[in-house]
Design a protein that fits this description.
The protein folds into 5 domains: 45 residues, no CATH class; 159 residues, GAF domain (Beta-Lactamase); 178 residues, GAF domain (Beta-Lactamase, 2-Layer Sandwich), CATH 3.30.450; 84 residues, Orthogonal Bundle (Helix Hairpins); 158 residues, Heat Shock Protein 90, CATH 3.30.565. The protein contains 17 helices and 20 strands. A 6-stranded antiparallel sheet has the order 10-9-8-13-12-11, with helices on both faces. Strands 4-3-7-6-5 form a 5-stranded antiparallel sheet, sandwiched between helices. The protein is flat. The N and C termini lie far apart (101 Å).
């Protein structure tokens, strides 16, 4: 009976001009009946207005040779080739749309709560009737059962029509949900702009292809989730580095304004807001510093730090004659926003858009510096310590912005650190003021005693230093002085023997001259070290081209190293290297480093001397690296390699000459030139030798 009723109604709807010309059927008619198994069956019919006859059939149904396996293989290839979600969904929609020869194909990912659905949509070239993709996405709900709407809408699944927003009459829809791991993760919608009777082959093929689409959607979601986690990790690292940077700055000797400017600039940059401000409060009555929720104290807010990151914002502010807000002040009793932030301390005040402004009733009575017309989004946190509001940290954005909880938590931590830094600075200033006052009083009352004490202290320090120098000299110089003197004494004794040939006399004289020169050099080095350590040496700055100096020194040392088979490679920039430095100190540094490299290099190896320029913190620097291959420097030796009379292990066994003053002199000379020197030694693979590199940096 149901079949006959449905057939009659379908014929009446399709050929109403033949049966009852005056009859006008509704847009949708739903016939509900129960089958023998007591299951509900829904039959839906529609009659397009002013369209008495059925539209022509589509030219070709789904091609027989393009089965579900082929479509699945093509979808899998799309997954492999593309990783971008939009590209994958768009290509899948195009592939299915062309395969099923429909007017539109829509592939939608099931959206989570408070998220916008992601989709890929494809239209055929001749389609001009179907709605745009955003409207189709809203209409095609991601249900858990298939939906089939044919020319007469003679079948529909699931057993409920409420969850589907049916399109206008005269359209045919085949909609298949995609299942992955027991849950629906999306939907495939095939649409035709004219009535169409979907075949069983098309339905079965669509259901079979849905499995491949479900995998593609799952991979897209996993890629999106991975990108989200990576972004969260990146943000977390940035937040941690920012907090560490501010903590380090607070513990250093930086001024408070530098700490505040560093904090607001870094925070505004990481959170990508256009403006950041720090306001400090100055109370008219210090007794009212303790916050009272019932009464707003008389306090003036002053902008002490400002950070503007957006160039367009800066141009707009410059045009309005307010390019800077530094040192601008206002009474907090005249600003409703600051009053609200003061009374709600330590909680932040969050304004995402104009709606939040209306909720807080901030339409009027706001300080001009906030300028809600230009910067409608705002986050303000009080800088509070032990119930006292010290100021405010303000972040503003030029468009509506949702302040995330992790961002608010970060700014709260920064505010706490800044509050601590402010208290420390204020306490330090108070202590310094008290110390200065007490010191002045003591200086007035004990001026004579202070002078005598200072002279006595200086004499004691000098005596202590002299004793220390004497002990060090006696303990370390005994060997260096005794050995050359022993050689000199032996050479003199041999020269006094009668009948010594002229050749042996010349050799003994050479020994005498060599040992005397060694003693003289040792004494000169000691005197030079004493001058440098006592800061008695003066700088004689000259502008020189160090390329010529380095080239001459390199040739001279290569000749000295000829017997050992050492060669030197000098790598210099093509342009001239003009440096303002002390010429004598510079040459002595290079001579000692090259001498040290020649002593400890393996025979028949190459010494590399390289010079480069760099800019560090807006300061031009010349970097000289000297690399040799030979016995290395252990990590323990590196700690004292630049100390006086300290030499590496094994130099005595290997009979390497030296006094242990060369690198100590280099260290003092480098500091004398306001430079730095470092050493690094690393083992060479498949070799017992090490590569040792001295790095000299000069301004």
């Amino acid at each position: 009976m149901l079949t006959n009723a449905w057939s009659f109604y379908r014929n009446a709807a399709t050929h109403q001009s033949r049966y009852r010309p005056q009859c006008r059927l509704r847009k949708y008619v739903v016939i509900i009946a129960k089958s023998a198994s007591n299951e509900k069956i829904f039959l839906v019919a529609t009659t397009p207005p002013n369209q008495p006859e059925r539209s022509p059939e589509y030219p070709v149904r789904l091609m027989q040779h393009q089965d579900s396996a082929q479509l699945g293989h093509r979808i899998n290839q799309i997954i492999v080739r593309s990783s971008d979600a939009e590209t994958v969904l768009q290509q899948i929609a195009q592939t299915l749309g062309e395969a099923f020869q429909v007017d539109c194909c829509l592939v939608v990912i099931k959206a989570e709560e408070q998220e916008t659905a992601k989709f890929g949509c494809w239209y055929s070239e001749h389609d001009s009737v179907l709605p745009p993709p955003e409207q189709l996405t809203a209409m095609m709900q991601t249900g858990s059962d298939p939906l089939v709407i044919s020319d007469d809408m003679n079948a529909i699944e699931p057993n409920s029509l409420a969850e589907w927003q049916l399109p206008s009459s005269g359209q045919a829809i085949l909609q298949i949900p995609t299942w992955f791991q027991g849950k629906t993760n999306g939907v495939i919608s095939l649409l035709r702009s004219q009535p169409y009777d979907w075949s069983e082959l098309e339905k079965q093929t669509a259901k079979a292809v849905a499995a491949s689409v479900a995998i593609a959607i799952s991979q897209v979601e996993q890629t999106r989730l991975l990108a989200s986690l990576q972004q969260q990790l990146h943000n977390s690292t940035q937040y941690k580095n920012l907090l560490t940077q501010i903590t380090t700055a607070s513990r250093s000797s930086l001024e408070l304004n530098q700490i505040l400017q560093l904090a607001i600039a870094s925070t505004a940059q990481i959170l990508q807001v256009e403006r950041g401000l720090i306001l400090m409060l100055k109370y008219a009555d210090p007794l009212l510093k303790i916050r009272s929720r019932e009464k707003i104290p008389k306090a003036k807010a002053t902008v002490v730090c400002e950070q503007t990151n957006d160039s367009d914002l800066g141009r707009q502010e410059s045009h309005s004659n307010s390019s800077t807000l530094l040192n601008q002040s206002f009474w907090i009793s005249e600003c409703l926003l600051c009053q609200h932030a003061f009374t709600s301390s330590p909680s932040p005040v969050v304004i995402s858009d104009q709606t939040d402004q209306l909720k807080l009733k901030l339409a009027n009575g706001i300080a001009p510096i906030f300028d809600f017309t230009l910067l409608p989004s705002l986050l303000i946190l009080p800088l509070e310590s032990q119930g006292t509001v010290l100021g405010f940290l303000v972040l503003q954005h030029s468009s509506d912005r949702c302040w995330h909880q992790e961002e608010i938590a970060l700014v709260e931590l920064i505010s706490a650190q800044l509050s601590t830094a402010i208290i420390q600075s204020q306490t330090l200033r108070q202590v310094q003021s008290l110390v200065e006052e007490r010191t002045t009083q003591l200086q007035r009352s004990l001026e004579i005693q202070g002078k005598l004490y200072e002279k006595t202290r200086q004499q004691i320090d000098q005596m202590r230093q002299l004793n220390q120098l004497k002990d060090e000299f006696l303990s370390t110089m005994s060997h260096e002085l005794r050995t050359p003197l022993t050689n000199i004494s032996l050479a003199i004794r041999m020269l006094r023997q009668p009948g010594i040939p002229a050749e042996r006399q010349a050799r003994y004289l050479d020994i005498l001259e060599q040992q005397c020169n060694q003693e003289i050099n040792l004494i000169n080095d000691l005197l030079k070290l004493q001058q440098l350590e006592s800061q008695q040496a003066t700088l004689k700055l000259e502008t020189i081209d160090i390329k010529a100096k380095i080239h001459d020194l390199g040739q001279a040392f290569e000749q000295k190293w000829a017997d050992k088979g050492l060669t030197i490679t000098i790598d210099l920039p093509k342009t001239s290297l003009l440096v303002e430095t002390d010429v004598e100190s510079f040459e002595r540094i290079l001579q000692e480093l090259l001498t040290n490299a020649g002593k400890y290099s393996d025979p028949d190896t190459n010494v590399v001397l390289r010079v480069t320029n760099q800019v560090h913190q807006q300061i031009h620097q010349t970097v000289i690296t000297l690399t040799n291959i030979g016995s290395g420097i252990s990590s323990e030796e590196a700690n004292y390699i630049f100390d006086k009379f300290r030499r590496g292990q094994g130099v005595t066994q290997n009979a390497i000459q030296g006094t242990g003053l060369g690198l100590a002199l280099v260290k003092c000379l480098v500091q004398h030139l306001n430079g730095t020197i470092d050493v690094a030694s690393s083992a060479i693979s498949n070799s017992s030798s090490y590569e040792t590199c001295f790095t000299l940096t000069l301004p």
